[in-house]
Fold this protein.
Amino acid sequence: MKTALFTNVAVVAILSAATFAPVAFADTVAAADPAADETITEVIVYGQGQSRQIQAVKASELALEAPGTSPLKAIDKLPGVTFQSADPFGAYEWSTRIGVRGFNQNQMGFTLDGVPLGDMSYGNHNGLHISRAITNEDVARVELTQGAGSLSTASTSNLGGTLQFFSRDPSNDMGGEVAGTVGSEAMHRLYGRFETGEIAQLNNLRAYVSVADQKTDKWKGGSEQKQRQISAKAVMPIGEGELTGFINRSERREQDYQDMSFDMISRLGRDWDNFQPNWALANQVAAAYLTNQPLPAPVATVDDAYYAGAGIRDDNLGAVSINYPLTDIISVKASVYKHTNEGQGLWYTPYVPSPNFGVSGATSNNAALSIRTTEYDVDRTGAFGSLMFDLGAHQVEAGFWIEDNDFNQARRFYGETLSAPSRDPLDFQSGAFFTQWEYAFNTKTTVGYVQDVWTVTDAFKVNFGFKAVKVENEVKTVTAATPMNGSLESKDSFLPQVGAVYKLDDNIELFGGYTENMAAYVSAATSGPFGAQSQAVLDYVKSSIDPETSKTIEGGLRLNAGSAFQGVLALYHVEFDNRLLGVAQGAAIVGNATVLSNVGGVETNGVEVAGTYRITPEWKIYSSYSYNDSQYQDNVVNAAGVIQANTKGKTVVDTPKHMFNAEVAYDNGKLFGTLGMKFTGERYYTYENRGGKVDSAKVADFTAGYRFGNDLDVQLNVTNLLDEDYISTIGSGGFTNADVAGTAQTILPAAPRMAFITVKKRF
């Protein structure tokens, strides 16, 4: 039924000329969205007229990154943002992390043209990563709200920041572009887009279709990472309104890097990785472990390396929207979307042999190891919309968001052959010899909101409103040794927001606001309240645990001196309550159950400063600085009152206190280039801050290019220009109370210096 609905949505989206129009609700004190104004020449927009801290990065800035780079990496320069990835493109999902003001990505909200992307977790339970949702060449702009985001944001995880991505509209003229990129580690990428232009016979419908195909070797270890994406978007005027829609298809195949520890880096070096393509060694280590024999040097533990690991994802995302003025006073926006995903996360486990291991005469399924998968199947359908009433001084809006998400998750094992690998880790696996567990989840989300933007005077505007949230999580056991069945509910009928902006003069404005938010429970067998895979734990959570909440106060000022200077200064205070902590047992890749409980709160205080200064029409300087102090307010205490972790007053994991970015850019219309450097302060992956400290890092990137007169561009990108040896991702294997010995496998070294060159032709 839902597959058929997706097909129908896609057909309507293309044949009816629907491009998904972003539902730009009146979530600020300004009636218009300045970030959407393409007449603004600066590529970073500081949110003039907004009642909250917000910046937007436009397509021209995104284009300066190497093709295939995640849009997340492009916003790393914005104040308050920390971004990590073990690959040069910021797209390797196992390692990708983004944090804002002490909140990690699972506590943030993400949308594409208004369509919810979930919390972008690797486990894939309620959405998909932005790198799969859209190719970076088709992104028009990215908006970051460092606070909890607007009432209209379709998210139930945005305790912290909100990232909204907007796709490019089709051109009015027929044409397109093709681009090719080659570079380090045999990287090659091809991108092409065809624009129909306005088709008079179809009521001036305009559309485009784009295709991107990328493949690169890993920078260490064996195998490769690759992705293919196909997208289409269309727009058709309907009277005074517009019917819009898009459909995106992504096929991603990623070979994993091995999670490391400080001990491993000391013993084995930062370039150590999994065994692939050395099949014999992988089996030798697994057999030695299973028979309690010494491991071959230099392997010290069975978790030092595996043969391989991989993430495989196929996604279809489509949406249809209408934006129409019913009268001079009333306008309506409504959208429907569909997302399906099939995925597997796999690794060659030495803990479980293939079923014929050690069987005399067996020639298949006899390896000392097996392939263990976590398998995902997402099928979600939703709709959102709003009514806007233009009452002169008051802009009143009421809106809704509903979603029905079916998520099936399973843990299976597949046999392998001792003599040589018989399966490709970059293919979907089939023919399992054992299913450890399988659960079917359903999540129903209902959100409604109402808001008024009141223009008190020409200089002073206020917005105030609230939203109501209800999320119902249900689980049914398909197969498991310990069945788990039941439901949970996250609910809050009054989550208020209020904000104001006051324009002192043409150059200075003051802004401020207050927001309350709640994060709904996660429906997955590997995280959240269902992660223990226990009926007793589920019943306990239902009766004794509360959802996480946040209260954010922020304020500041913006300076706008025309084309010469734009800048912002913001202060904020956040109270994060009912923090949920699930403590992992053993190596993260093993996937053991976690124990979940409310463990107190976090208090965060900080300041953010950013500005762009144009020295001449060709030269400009951008810089940002942020100070963030996030501290746990309580120790972790068990039901008996015994302290499990001394966390009170300690710095929250993965939250650097100091971050600084500086960038100089040149563009004379032909020759262009940027040189940027990001400083990220020290971070911890231990809750008690005992051991687990990752040193600060200074990372520079460089871009240079030339635009020829015949719409031909050439661009060079160099990532990690100074070849800095540093730890990028922390917490890849989860966080721990303490790690004085440095043995926790939860860090990933960053990629070394790499270079890529792109040739682009527009027609």
User: Anything to note?
Assistant: Residues 1-40 have pLDDT under 50 and may be disordered. The first strand starts at residue 44 and ends at 45.
